[in-house]
Known about the structure:
Elements: H1 2-38, E1 43-53, E2 56-58, E3 64-69, E4 76-77, E5 82-86, H2 89-146, H3 151-179, H4 191-208, E6 211-213, E7 218-221, E8 230-231, E9 238-241, E10 246-253, E11 265-270, E12 274-286, E13 295-298, E14 306-309, E15 312-319, H5 321-326, E16 334-340, H6 367-381, H7 385-393
Antiparallel strand pairs: 1-10, 1-16, 2-9, 3-5, 3-8, 4-7, 5-6, 7-9, 10-15, 11-12, 11-16, 12-15, 13-14
Helix pairs in contact: 2-3, 2-4, 2-6, 4-6
Amino acid sequence: MSTDIKTTPAISKRWRWLIGAGGTVAVMALVFGLYWAQVLRYQQSTDDAYVGGNVVQITPQISGTVIAIGADDTQFVKAGQALVRLDQADAKVAFDQAEAQLARTVRDVRNLYATSAQLQAAVQVRESDFSAARSDLARRRQLGASGAVSGEELQHAIDAARAAEAGLDVARQQLAANRARVDGTTLENHPQVRDAAAAVRSAYLTFSRTELPAPVSGFVARRNVQLGQRVSPGTPLMAVVPLDQVWVDANFKEPQLERMRVGQPVKLTADLYGTHVVFHGSVAGFGAGTGAAFSLLPAQNATGNWIKIVQRVPVRIALDPREVASRPLQIGLSMKADVDVSSSDGARLPQVASNAASWSTDVFGSGNAAADSRVHAIIAANLSDTSRAVAAVRAPARALLANAHTTAAAPTAGAPRALP
């Protein structure tokens, strides 16, 4: 009896401990269940995520020999900064020849307009001669009727009138032929001038392309060009990585994509900065090249069972550029992504097209204005004083150069070329 009395308090204490522990577990399970129902069920996470970005290749558009390299791996460069310079000697000669040809063409076309004026004056002289010959013939015919003029003299008058008429026809044909070369044009937009201007533009483009600028600001990577190297169009010389234009490619399992939609908020952490630094982004799109199908493969064990292999689908996540600016990310860094899928309205793969360019640069377009200005300067330098006065009051002519994308490098030529 005494033994039973002594063990009863110990048993009661054990039960109280078990009941307390079980209650604690039950409360924790309830709290976790509520947290899962309200939060975790709407969170899809993966640590199979990496920083991605653009790698802008620097390639020449013309052949040439490298004479200068303006940046090396890991260095930061600004958009428009010269990265590689090719030998300019041949391009400079071709450019000078094109300028000289344009100057000659302008003067040749000026001569066409002047010839038209001369031929018009010649037509007027021939018209006057023909009118006088006809009047003389009419008088002689009147006198011939009375016998005051011999038949021979009258025949001479007839021949003279016919010769004057033939001379007038020739003058008119010459005027028409010359006018056919200038009618409906001005000197600036005459086809021959436009053709010569196009040659200047082409030579200017070739000259300016001896300098390769950075299309964007970023860090240089993969430099493999060397001084003295002979390069051809399309040869990869180096790359520029703009780290202000990065994103994250997160690879999610197929079941995780059911409620995932474009625009859903995402929280990300990087191994580089630790979990205390949180990046914020949004789902930008889904990889269309990877299918959501699965395949059955034999398991690597002795039983030879079959297992289900679930694919991962890349999801593009856009980052907040302000956060990236304060804490830069490099391409290839590991990330952890948590997508809030609580709002899953809309199509899973929306077909929304955008007309705006995703990426663009303007460093190749500045040479167009310079080339256009160069052409107009050459034309102006080879106009007569009268033509300059007319050009000064005429509305600006249509630009002779089509839109061109070239570097800002300007030929180191002197004053606009003018021929004597």
